[in-house]
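Re: weekly structure request thread

Next one in the queue (631 aa):
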Amino acid sequence: MIRQIWTKVNSDNHIWRVGITAIIFVTSLRLVGSLQFLEWAAFDTLMQLRPQEKIDQRILIIGMNENDINQRGIDPISDRDIALLLQNLHKHQPAVIGLDIIRYFPEESGYEELVQTFIKIKNLIAVEKILPDISGLTFNLPPSLPESQIGFSKTIIDSDGKQRRSLLAISNREREWKFSFPIKLAETYLKTQGIPPGNVDNDTYNIKFGATELPRFQPNSGGYVQADAGGSQILINFRNQGKTFPIVSLSEMQSGKVNPEQIRGKIILIGMASYSHKDYAVSSTINSKHPDLIYGVEVHAYIVSQLVSAALDNRPMVNVLADIWEYLWIIFWGILGLIIGRVIRDPFRVLIFITIASICLVFICYGLIIIGWWIPIIPAFLTLFFNGVGLAAFHRYDESLRYCLQYRQLIIDQTFDAIHSHPLQTLNIILREVQDDQRLSPQDFILKLQQLNQELRDVYDLVKGETLSGLNDADYLPYSRLDLSQPLDEILFEVYSESLEQNYSYFDNIKHKILKFESMDERNLTIAQKQSLCNFLKEALYNVKKYAYGATRLEVICTQEHGKNIIRVADNGLKIEKIADLSSHSGLGTKLAQNLANQLGGEFKRYLNSPNGVVCQLTWYAKKMGFCRLF
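Done, posted below.
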């Protein structure tokens, strides 16, 4: 059994090589980054399809909108207004206040008051801008705040213009660590919950809160290829909450319309909620009314919520597999496609199985996204599809090409046999008589030449007839007009009907026709083999017309019997030629039938019918008895 399997695999080395080449091709595309945009798009789509989450009520955003700016005539907000807002918030005892406003120039009016407010409020975190080269250099430092109350702001944008990553920490040129605005807010809030920050053992870049480790972004994490992973970065797991965080305007705060309970013990973020200030990011991983553009202060809120929820609620971060496991995952789906395309012979069934496997792949990746794992889906799908559908098509073409080559070789062999058996023998006799100085009368010589001429014409007619019967003649076309995707019994019945129509003058004289067309097991048949079965039935019916003179009875059986598929054509005609042993008859049709039987693992037989006529029969094993239908 093992030897048979190994022989089968070894005989299809070229098929396996094509499949392995497809896997290597797809993995190469991924290694050079050609699939990066597709993987990002798939990741964004799966993130949007996640179940809706509850809004994180621990966060409140105070967003200065266009109305706030127009009412005061100051863009964006005066130092005094900021100081008053911070003092008002501080009265209601929030857990932490995050000020996401960059001051490019201090204002004379209210500046000192703002400085004193900064000194007084110890749970205030202000933002500073980091230079684009993420070297650690910053500008616009908040006044009079210690380093522990300052966090930098740096947006990392992917090449498609969307934000999927957050920079949490970086060391400057003096090798001093700086921490981002969101992680400072999360750290301050989690300290009130008794959860301190820390570093992961053996990795100073990895950060943790309590027992919760933050998986650090690597250059090849998920669908990324050789990305800049400088500092300590994470993939953002945006909350799929439909609506944004609770947000109130500056005017609502100053007019006292905000319930103090919305502030007490909460994380408060203050920032611009106006697109005119261009403080926004692009992300398509959020399933909301406006998924593309979100304010910068909202992005900070999502990151803070991610960090706090991971530490307090065990909400998953975005994790990825190691590179070796990702490529083993891709190879697995490529091998699965290879097996489907190689084992299943029916193209329609291959497409069904590939579709089912693709759906399973999508659901697996979707389920893993829900629990926080980003697994490659695009390269896995491509290897599955190429090796399933593509390899199946290649295999069908290869099989059909082999069949055509075998058919042509049989014609050539038959031609050589015919030439050797008659014309060459006659020519040899003529040459021998001439060389032996045997005088031939002109009449005898002419008779010999006429015999040779006739034998050559017979060879010509034989080759022409065999070729036309197999390839060109209307009686023996490969049935391109037939729908070979239909059930085999229906196709064979159509072949029988066409044969009778084309030879009606002969078959109309047969008084008794016994027909039996029942469903047959065709699960492992290729299109080329179904076509060959049609040719076999056509050839058998053609031989009835050619040899069975005086036939009054015709029996055509296409069914299953005792676990075997059977095609049988029998007549009761009298043959002109006397054939002592039908098994010794080896014309082109016989060789094609024997070759087809070998392909199917079956048997071809031609034997005498009782009391008169011939039976032509092809059998091969069926896997399962099908539904029978009589015509």
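The chain is about 45% helix and 15% strand. The first helix runs from residue 2 to 11.
Next request, please.
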